[in-house]
Amino acid sequence: MTYIAKPKFHHPGLPKNELGYTHRDYEGKISTLCAGCGHDSITAAIIEACFQLSIEPHRVAKISGIGCSSKTPDYFLGNSHGFNSVHGRMPSVLTGANLANRDLIYLGVSGDGDSASIGFGQFAHSIRRGVNMTYIVENNGVYGLTKGQFSATADRGSKSKRGVVNSDNAIDLAAMALQLGASFVARSFSGDKTQLVPIVEAAIRHKGAAFIDVISPCVAFNNHAGSTKSFDYVREHNEAVNRLDIITGRAPIHIEQAPGTVQMVEQHDGTRLALRKLDADYDAHDRLAAMAFLQKHAAKGQVVTGLLYVDPEADDLHSHLNTVDAALNTLEAKDLCPGQSALDKINAALR
Amino acid sequence: MPAASPISSVNDFVVRFANVNGSGSASANELFARSILRHGVPVSPRNIFPSNIQGLPTWYEVRVTEDGHLGARGGVDMMVAMNPQTWDKDVASIEPGGYLFYDSTKPMPSSKFRDDISVIGVPLTAITNSTYTDPRQRQLFKNIIYLGALSALFEMDAKLIEQLIGEQYKGKEKLLSSNVHALHLGRDWALQNLKCPIGLRVRKADKVGDRIFVEGNSAAALGAVYGGASVCAWYPITPSSSLADAFTSHCKRLRHDPATGKAKYAIVQGEDELASIGIVIGAGWNGARAFTATSGPGISLMQEFIGLSYFAEIPAVIMNVQRAGPSTGMPTRTQQCDVISCAYASHGDTKHPLLFPEDPAEAFDMAAQCFDLAERLQTTIFLMLDLDIGMNHRLSRPFKWDDSKQLDRGKVMTAAMLDDGRDFGRYLDVDGDGIPYRTYPGTHPTKGSFFTRGTSRDRYARYTEEGPAYQDNMQRLLRKFETAKDLVPRPLQANAGKPTKYGVIYYGSTTPAMDEAIGMLEARGHQLDRLRVRAFPFHSSVPNFIADHDFVYVVEQNRDAQLRSLIVNECGIDPVRLVPILHYDGTPITARFIAKAIGDHLDQLKVTPLRKVGA
Ligand SMILES: Cc1ncc(C[n+]2csc(CCOP(=O)(O)OP(=O)(O)O)c2C)c(N)n1
Ligand code: SF4
Ligand SMILES: [Mg+2]
To answer: Residue A194 in contact with residue A219, Cβ under 8 Å?
Structure first.
């Protein structure tokens, strides 16, 4: 039952972040998802990322559509406002929320059904508008909540639990996001926390539309032989282009022994992303190359993961609209209402 | 020889311009309407246009009405027939004894005319072509030339028209003088070659006062500015697009920070109506005042979100500029056909407040009020405009604003209140009015956050699928709707001069025609008490009014008597007590139509008195 809040014992030994918060302060209700569901690992990664970034939990707005994936915002950041909105419409609700208050952090959580089918249009348009957000798709290739129908990200030829073979082409949301102009595009795997956590951190710090496609096996309906979104399949076919470390003002947190070359990317807010490249010829600044790279590997049946593209100089919808620095929801009558004197002039011009 | 004598009327007639869409006639025709206003004589103009941009017929009708009847009258006293395509129908529509004004450059066979009307030919093309060589100029000035000729025929004061042209082209001397020149070309030709004036005349009066001349869509958009809307999301659809356009231009003028030049608003053209309402709901959830403007098909698409706004109690404002039915064509005609679809929009048990403005001034007031109501009631509020109000210039009382007025942000629990230990339950009815407190996202580090979902939660927004919790919440929503009855604009009642057993209910753009019809009915010996409904849910004065009369007519512009159904349903009224009077051919309702429909009905009821001997 999700209304049972987790007991909050603050063990004195629990590690604290810069704000003095522990992990516990970033947790939410107890998950009602199936044990082993990939979505729960993503929840854990979001909690970890927010803890590491020392975000004030209540300064995050969590917005989702409808689906198992879209239920997860109840399971992290219990002190944030959350909105489990309408199937496929998280992007528009998030866009509106973001317009109302540019000062919060917007976390959009969606599923592959939510984003690649019913909400494909909203996915596309929120990204092309450059809404400042972290848009996470928990991608299991099926409709979990409605019991296992294929979604539009299911690979052609993959087999459902009932043995049906999917004959439709798959939509690659990361490739779409690149094409649509997302200024941050990544793909990861729910089972790869080391890769996923810094990606979520970097996406949150990114100013602009940050999109993350996270392959997230559905243990109930899509983790069998013949599925291309199962734990085993993804582990075997994962082609990581890089490992990411995020360096904020403080000491680097994740730097382990870095194999291969390391490329530093500095974002707007001063955070630096250290890209430890596994694939020597991968350049995360080149949108066209990223698109080609994805296609090339998809043809070989490989799932490319890592930070695929970032434009550290990106701006967002608010810059395009030239809105005031203050959050629109803080403006008062004196800011918004021009008063009778302006009306007198308007009246005079209408005679 | 004319069978009917020529119509003779001062300051009371209807001129209709039949033009080709895209020929630049619109601004000349509007200039005509405005110049009559400058004579102190009220006018009521209407566009009748197709949904094409260029090439198809379009009409502009000006009712000149010293008595100030701003509804459509019906019938045409003078046709300015500038479109060969619609000639036959246009000529046929002229009242007997009326006038036909046409371009006589090319001779027309006599079979093309009628002998019971006066025919006035002006060689417009010939005059234009001998003066201008540029094809664009020819087209534009031809319109001004016919305006000049009409000014002579109607005995209008040319100075007043020149003044208007002067205001329009202030600072553009060349355009100004060439327009004035064209005006006099037509006027002088008419004065020299025609018998001026004709029977229809404009005479100076003092009947306009301080009223303004404005379109309802522009007024509603201005109301949104004054009501504090800071987020607008919309998707183009006639007849509502001009509302969003007007909001954009009002904001450009009124809502930029003078120091930084930055915008105190955000306007997004959504990819569709689903996105538009989604953006509005997201912004409303997050504490900004947000609205969308749309029309019937958009309302259909927004259904799911409207229900979410009802259940999750999120403020939203939808301005619905109603039009007739789906597809293109008829939809650029007016109707009041979305009353039911808005009142009960969405799945589940839902109902939503509707506001019915009668004209631009009220559209301004109510548009602003919608935002207070939306935040006070935490739900979607509909402003029910229609094409007739929205897209026509209407003479209207000037806009007024009380500078001491503050925005009513409704029940919002702040960080300070939470720190004071106030109990926060998102769906808790603390005041007994059905309205709970909300918190904005980001308010407090540890208190007041909640998870928003459509249903399945208790008073503290905790997840539950228990039936009683669901019912408890639904009952509270009903209490909230009760509260709304006293918050929305009250109906306005006007009683007949003499006591009567009959009443009439009407709303929105029907108002001017209804007001005029009352006079016509009185002349026929029928007295009616009137109630103008201005909002749903209905205030108790609506059922009371019905109870006070034997029966009540409900006049509306749709086929299914939608407001009547709503009254029957919501007020538990016996349907036989409400007689529907319905007009729904896409043209605006007229006083003539109402007076005939009600008058005939009342005549039939009249018990014929026993003939008095010798009478
Ligand atoms: C308008 C509408 N249509 C259908 C549904 C039913 N529905 C609920 S969740 C869902 C699919 C969810 O799939 P996905 O987004 O992939 O989430 P998952 O459960 O797989 O995480 C559907 C079709 C709905 N809630 N609303
Ligand atoms: S059905 Fe699948 S997606 Fe839904 S909770 Fe279970 S494992 Fe996760
Ligand atoms: Mg899914």
So the answer is: no
In sequence order, what are the residues at sequence separation of 6 or more whose Cβ sits closer than 8 angstroms to the Cβ of residue B606? none
A195 exposure class (CB count in 10 Å sphere: 0-12, 13-18, 19+):
buried
Q: Burial of A177 by CB count in 10 Å (0-12 exposed, 13-18 middle, 19+ buried)? A: buried
pTM of the predicted model, to two decimals?
Answer: 0.95
Asked whether the beta carbons of B527 and B497 are under 8 A apart, the reply is yes
Q: How many residues does chain A have?
A: 351
Q: Is the separation of the CB atoms in A217 and A223 below 8 Å? A: yes
Residue A118 is classified by DSSP as I
At A104-127, the pLDDT tens digits run 999 999 999 999 999 999 999 999
pLDDT tens digit sequence for B298-335: 999 999 999 999 999 999 999 999 998 777 766 678 99
Q: How many residues does chain B have?
A: 615
Please say whether the beta carbons of B332 and B392 come within 8 A: no
3 state SS of B317:
strand
From the CA of B39, how far away is ligand 1's center (Å)? 64
Partner-chain residue, chosen from A2, A104, A335, that has the shortest CB–CB distance to B463: A2
Q: Domains of chain A by range and CATH? A: 23-321 (3.40.50.970)
pLDDT band at A273 (very low <50, low <70, confident <90, very high): confident
Residue A301 backbone zone (phi > 0: left; psi -120 to 50: alpha; other: beta): left
User: Is the pLDDT confidence value at B98 over 50?
Assistant: yes
Residue nearest to atom 8 of ligand 2 (CA): A37
Asked if the C-beta of B281 comes within 8 angstroms of chain A's C-beta atoms, the answer is yes
d(C-alpha A45, C-alpha A38), whole Å:
11
Q: How far apart are CA B369 and CA B227, in angstroms?
A: 7
What CA–CA distances, in Å, run from B300 to A83, B74, B273, B305?
23, 32, 9, 11
Q: For a ligand 1 pocket test, name from A39, A87, A138 the mutation site with the most ligand atoms within 8 angstroms of its C-beta.
A: A87
Other CB atoms closer than 10 Å to residue B302's CB: what's the count? 29
